[in-house]
Write a structure and sequence with these properties.
With about 325 residues, the chain is α/β, with parallel strands linked by helices. Helix content is about 50%, strand content about 10%. Helix 6 packs across helix 12. The chain is globular. The C terminus is likely disordered. Bound molecules: guanosine-5'-triphosphate and magnesium ion.
Length: about 325
């Protein structure tokens, strides 16, 4: 694909062409390397759109909440992009299809772009695909981006690495808090939602969550954000206005304390970079047998005990390109020279 094509694709995204956005996301999903040139053009043209992450255990009501949030933000005349990350994990217990369809009712609204993403083939894994999709969303001219991911194990990290505000959805059911602690969700949230308030034990569960969250977010001075705990019934929309208020308040908090937002972005971006480095290496070695002149060269060096493995690894890393590994074997070091 030529540079001109990349320019044209990037231009269509910036112009808000939904078809172009959709095609680009498909190319990201299936790890089409020609997409990298488009992302390079789009990234500097991003507009720092606020990203709202919604995470929590399977079936907690994340999609139902997102559906309600879309309606609320649309009522405020915001243009939205929504990414539903599908980890294709065996844990997923919610009524995916039903709720996706319910959420998809907004797709007829020209100011809402909804997309779900699986992306196991992506160079940077699912986290990489989400990051790349967010670059596209950030450039397409929307006012807010919503991302839903299941908060199990590593998957909630996809959101935490990118979102300016993270909403953690819980339910009163017994195992949730234990699972949340395990998944690191009690450190991750800026806002906590105790959903399914129509089911039993919600007040006790919300109070226990309040205590756990306070315990993990010690208030260091008056400029610290105290994550609110909001009770909701996401299908009917009860309590969702309070979630919206909390989202807007969190944004205002960052406007008052911009250094906190800056510090968070820096921390997130360093994690993104580290993850990208690791992903490049994993990709290379999961898709093909490690080979090529550079790998062979350094393998031989290690086998012959001329180079320690760590030194060879560092040399190999220095020869990385994002498509894989460059043919990197310094001529001066080649055997026989
Ligand atoms: N009773 C009750 N049911 C709810 C509530 N919110 C969601 N549900 C139901 O719970 C089920 C799961 O809701 P989803 O919105 O799909 O949950 P999810 O967290 O998106 O699920 P996954 O994406 O599969 O992890 C659905 O059958 C919803 O209708 C609620 O507040 N009360
Ligand atoms: Mg869902």
């Amino acid at each position: 694909m030529s540079d001109g094509d990349a320019e044209a694709d990037a231009g269509s995204v910036v112009a808000g062409n939904r078809r172009a956005v959709g095609k680009l996301l498909t190319r990201i999903e299936c790890a089409d390397p020609s997409v990298l040139a488009v992302l390079d053009l789009l990234y500097p043209r991003g507009t720092h759109v606020p990203i709202l992450g919604i995470t929590g255990p399977p079936g907690a009501g994340k999609s139902a909440l997102v559906d309600q949030l879309i309606a609320r933000f649309r009522a405020r005349d915001e243009r939205l992009a929504v990414l539903a990350v599908d980890p294709s994990s065996p844990f997923t217990g919610g009524a995916i299809l039903g709720d996706r369809i319910r959420m998809a009712r907004h797709n007829t609204d020209p100011n809402v772009f909804i997309r779900s993403m699986a992306a196991r083939g992506h160079l940077g894994g699912l986290a990489g695909a989400v990051g790349d999709a967010l670059i596209v969303f950030d450039a397409m001219g929307v006012d807010r981006i919503l991302v839903e991911t299941v908060g199990v194990g590593q998957n909630e990290m996809d959101i935490i690495l990118h979102a300016g505000t993270v909403v953690v959805v819980q339910t009163p059911s017994g195992g949730d808090v234990v699972q949340a602690v395990k998944a690191g969700l009690l450190e991750a949230g800026d806002i906590y939602v105790m959903n399914k308030m129509d089911t039993g034990g919600v007040d006790r569960a919300a109070a226990a969550l309040r205590d756990s969250v306070d315990f993990r977010h010690p208030l260091n001075g008056s400029d610290a954000w105290r994550p609110p705990v909001v009770k909701t019934q996401a299908v009917e929309g009860t309590g969702v206005d309070a979630v919206v208020d909390a989202v807007l308040a969190h944004r205002q908090h960052f406007e008052r304390f911009p250094h906190q937002l800056e510090a968070r972005r820096r921390l997130q971006m360093s994690a993104v970079l580290v993850e990208r480095v690791a992903a490049l290496w994993r990709f290379r070695n999961s898709t093909q047998h490690p080979s090529g002149p550079a790998f062979e060269y350094w393998l031989n060096e290690v086998m012959a005990r001329r180079s320690a493995p760590s030194a060879a690894a560092a040399a190999l890393l220095s020869g990385f390109t994002r498509e894989g590994i460059a043919d990197y074997a310094p001529a001066a070091l080649r055997p026989g020279k």
